[in-house]
Design brief:
Elements lengths: L9 E4 L2 E4 L3 H4 L2 H4 L3 E5 L10 E6 L5 E5 L4 E5 L9 E6 L7 E5 L2 E6 L2 E6 L9 E6 L11 E3 L8 E5 L15 E4 L5 E5 L5 E6 L5 E5 L8 E5 L32 E2 H7 L8 E3 L8 E6 L13 E5 L4 E10 L2 E10 L6 E6 L5 E6 L11 E8 L7 E7 L2 E6 L5 H4 L6 E9 L7 E5 L2 E7 L5 E7 L5 E6 L15 E6 L6
Antiparallel strand pairs: 1-2, 3-27, 4-5, 5-6, 6-7, 8-9, 9-10, 10-11, 12-13, 13-14, 14-15, 16-17, 17-18, 18-20, 19-30, 21-22, 22-23, 23-24, 24-35, 25-26, 26-27, 28-29, 29-33, 30-31, 30-34, 32-33, 34-35
Length: about 500
């Protein structure tokens, strides 16, 4: 789903191919496994299970929608030592990249439509397929469609990939649309390039995962604001089909910066969370919010998001500052077996992940896999969350810090950069600066440090390196880096 996935994911050394290392940014999978173990969820060898979407049914079975157009029911996927049984519920669909269940029916998003799928005679197999909306066009295999779970009003939000990754040849390619429960299509916003995940953030606002490419310097999470422009102008030809949104915005034809252009183009929605290329994935994908109430460890109410190319899971947190969404991303777990497309929390509080390598190279060694991340009960020493403050940042940790070390301003290394907002493919990190931490104040419980920073740069990613920080037990962080996208500096 990303043309940039053709970038090398393996390195040739003495005639041998090996996966590129993430150690400079992530640490090691062995260290991560102390806290979150990978559990294999086996499936029959003859079943090519390319998971594209998940849903947990009311009876706590797992439903899987696949890239091959099937829906499977799985009994036993959530067991501690799973030996699951699979039953095919539906087939003949087209890349099921959205799966939601309500009132006895599935509401699925496939490349060409949103469909209600029902088992009317109770035999365990779907027999009624009703098109709710097929009001967008389809002409090319790369015109993927990613659908949300049904929202509180009964709508399915659909993020539509461009035609052939670069063009918009048929209606609403490069748009987000809503499909109501009675089948009405409502255009939401334009400017999408190549999405691979859509759903609410931890505050219940609809976001989508965007990939690096033209007009997108790096991968990012973006808020789907009604009437907004997500940054890629090639889909403007469909504004006549969305008259309620007014005329198309005017965008630059020369390289610029997002911070400059969002001040000029009122519809332009900035990246809420930038995932710096390779450091934090190459092609971010499906995401889900941890609503397990602590069953998955200390990160409740945070976003967990996969990456297709690097076969990793990351975390993100968002906040609204001066009316604009922004936030941070953090490494979480590497070592997954294939390219991740979907993730879903189980009733036990574990994280189910799955996907495929079909179409593009991925770091994971298998063509497809179904796996689960289970918390071991041990709390890792991690950056839990970073929040912006008028004069710096508030950093929260999962375990108390060493007060003496944490109170030293020189403990913290901070750099900033942004990306070029341009028609060209992606962007290097540009406009680097080096802010200085003037003061570090440790909270009473030693779980937070308030950093007073000289040199905050609005519109820049602020990259933190906590290499020298230590816990009360003198342990280093499992992951030393975090990345905050500072669209707005909070008012005093």
């Amino acid at each position: 789903m990303r043309t940039f996935w053709f970038a090398a994911l393996v390195v040739l050394t003495s005639g041998t191919l090996r996966a590129e290392t993430l150690g400079d940014y992530w640490g090691t999978a062995d260290e991560e496994s102390k806290y979150y173990r990978i559990v294999e969820v086996p499936f029959p060898e003859e079943l090519a299970l390319e998971a594209g979407s998940f849903e947990v049914l009311p009876d706590e079975r797992l439903a899987i929608g696949t890239r091959r157009g099937e829906i499977f029911f799985v009994d036993g996927a959530f067991d501690e030592n799973p030996q699951p049984k699979y039953r095919r519920y539906a087939a003949g669909l087209d890349e099921v990249m959205g799966l939601s269940y309500r009132d006895g029916s599935f509401y699925i998003t496939q490349q060409t439509e949103v469909t209600r799928v029902t088992d009317t005679d109770g035999d365990g197999r779907a027999d009624e397929f009703k098109t709710l909306s097929d009001a967008w066009g389809f002409r090319n295999y790369h015109e993927f469609a990613f659908g949300s779970k049904m929202d509180a009003e009964g709508n399915i939000w659909v993020a539509l990939c461009l035609s052939e990754s670069y063009r918009s040849k048929v209606p609403f390619r490069g748009w987000c649309v809503k499909v109501t429960k009675d089948g009405k299509l409502i255009p939401v916003c334009s400017g999408i390039r190549s999405p691979c995940g859509i759903g609410p953030n931890e505050h219940g606002v609809m976001f989508y995962a965007e990939s690096q490419g033209p007009w997108n310097g790096s991968c990012s999470l973006k808020a789907l604001e009604p009437g907004g422009f997500m940054g890629h102008p090639v889909s403007f030809n469909w504004y006549p089909l969305a008259e309620q949104l007014g005329p198309a915005p005017v965008v630059p034809n020369t390289p610029s910066r997002m911070e400059i252009e969002r001040r000029r183009v009122k519809e332009l929605v900035p990246y809420a969370v930038v995932f710096p290329y390779r450091k934090m994935g190459r092609s971010i994908s499906g995401f889900v919010v941890d609503r397990t109430g602590g069953k998955f460890g200390p990160f409740q109410n945070q976003i967990f998001i996969g990456d297709f190319s690097l076969s990793v899971v990351m975390r993100a947190t968002t906040e609204k500052v001066n009316g604009v969404w922004q936030g941070a991303c953090y490494p979480f777990r590497e070592g997954l077996a294939t390219g991740l497309l979907a993730c879903e929390f189980t009733p036990r509080g574990d994280l189910m992940v799955g996907g495929t390598n079909r179409g593009w190279p991925v770091r994971g060694p298998r063509p497809y896999a179904l796996q689960r991340l289970d918390w071991t009960g041990k709390v890792p020493f991690e950056v839990k969350e970073i929040n912006a403050r008028p004069d710096g940042f508030l950093v929260t940790f999962t375990k108390p810090v060493d007060r003496a070390v944490a109170a030293l301003p020189e403990t913290y290394a901070l750099t900033t950069y942004t990306h070029i907002y341009q028609q060209g493919y992606g962007s290097p990190e540009v406009d680097h600066t080096t802010p200085r931490v003037l003061k570090a104040v440790v909270s009473h419980d030693a779980l937070q440090v308030r950093l007073q920073v000289e040199g905050l740069i609005q519109g820049h990613v602020h990259e933190f390196d906590f290499e020298h920080l230590r816990s009360e037990e003198s342990a280093p962080l499992v992951h030393r880096n975090a990345y905050y996208t500072l669209n707005e500096i909070p008012r005093p």
